[in-house]
Design brief:
The chain contains nine helices and 13 strands. By secondary structure, the protein is of the alpha/beta class. It has two domains: 95 residues, Ribosomal protein L30/S12 (60s Ribosomal Protein L30, Chain: A, 2-Layer Sandwich); 169 residues, Alpha/beta knot (3-Layer(aba) Sandwich), CATH 3.40.1280.10. Strands 6-9-8-7-12-10-13-11 form an eight-stranded parallel sheet, sandwiched between helices. Keywords: Methyltransferase, Transferase. This is 23S rRNA (Guanosine(2251)-2'-O)-methyltransferase RlmB. InterPro entries: Alpha/beta_knot_MTases (IPR029028), Ribosomal_eL30-like_sf (IPR029064), rRNA_MeTrfase_TrmH (IPR004441), SpoU_MeTrfase (IPR001537), SpoU_subst-bd (IPR013123), tRNA_m1G_MTases_N (IPR029026).
Length: 285
């Protein structure tokens, strides 16, 4: 079952631009036939344009910085990234050149159409609203369409938040939003840098964490999802990371009786989420 496992501090405005500098961020949607088209989402490039976008309150999904980049302006960018808790991905220049052949100055940032939250801020709100937390953790899910499909199901069943890692996860671009049928606009996304720490935080807050894996002995029908819970789905190829798996409270699986020994992660996730919903509804009867 391999595929089964599968508020920003708006700081004081700073003027980074010299006189006569065009402060408008350079956006590139890769519509040019001469540009690579790895993803269908807007991105900006260049040191000052990226800083201006961050200061303007744009939500940064991912930012890629050329390894070894130096200089005073880059030093200012690093301070800004730290201030806004944005973690850059250090990459070789060849990767940046695949995004755009224009003068990127060693920096490319992808703009997200949605806002991100922090689980430690969101979970108390869920409890205060009198709700039973129902969360989904996606551990390094990389396929955009799988992510979009899962987000659509998650919103339909009333998931309070989807937690993803800030590195190694599928980008939340127009493909993901389209596949989710717009659900990504209606479900809260928490981007965290350490999912194992998230699991620990949830457990300390009274949330049971279930990890979906074909190595489990317990079927989903034998688990209790009626109380505060979080369900973890893993990467399409490698499943849930060992660290996250180790921290989970229970390991669960779906029954597979056919010759095909794996399910698409979005299909498996849907089956698990609806079993959880069934239990929650039965508990209310």
């Amino acid at each position: 079952m391999g595929e089964f496992n599968k508020k920003y501090n708006s700081g004081e405005k700073r003027n980074f631009a010299p006189k006569n500098f065009d402060r408008k961020p350079r956006f590139d949607n890769r519509n040019s036939e001469n540009e690579p088209r790895n993803e269908k989402e807007d991105f900006i490039f260049g040191l000052r344009p990226v800083m201006e976008a961050i200061e303007a309150g744009k939500t940064i999904d991912k930012i890629f910085v050329q390894g070894g980049l130096q200089g005073d302006i880059y030093a200012d960018l690093k301070k800004l990234l730290k201030k806004h808790n944005i973690r850059p991905n250090t990459v070789p220049i060849e990767k940046l050149n695949r995004f755009t052949r224009k003068n990127h100055q060693g920096v490319v940032a992808f703009i997200s159409e949605i806002s991100f939250y922090k689980i430690e801020d969101l979970l108390p709100q869920i409890f205060e609203e009198g709700k039973v937390p129902f969360l989904l953790i996606l551990d390094r899910l990389t396929d955009v369409r799988n992510f979009g499909a899962i987000a659509r199901t998650a919103e339909c069943v009333g998931i309070d938040a989807i937690v993803i890692p800030d590195k190694g996860a599928a980008p939340i671009n127009s493909d993901a939003i389209k596949t989710s049928a717009g659900a990504l606009y209606n479900v809260k996304i928490c981007k965290e840098n350490n999912l194992a720490h998230v699991v620990d935080f949830l457990q300390q807050s009274g949330v049971t964490v279930f990890a979906a894996t074909e190595k489990a002995e317990k079927m989903i029908y034998d688990s209790d999802f009626s109380e505060p819970c979080a369900i973890v789905m893993g990467n399409e190829e490698t499943g849930i990371s060992k660290e996250v798996m180790h921290h989970a409270d229970e390991k669960i699986k779906l029954p597979i009786t056919g010759k095909t020994q794996s399910l698409n992660v979005s299909v498996a996730c849907g089956a698990i989420l609806y079993e959880a919903v069934r239990q929650k509804l039965v508990g209310k009867l």
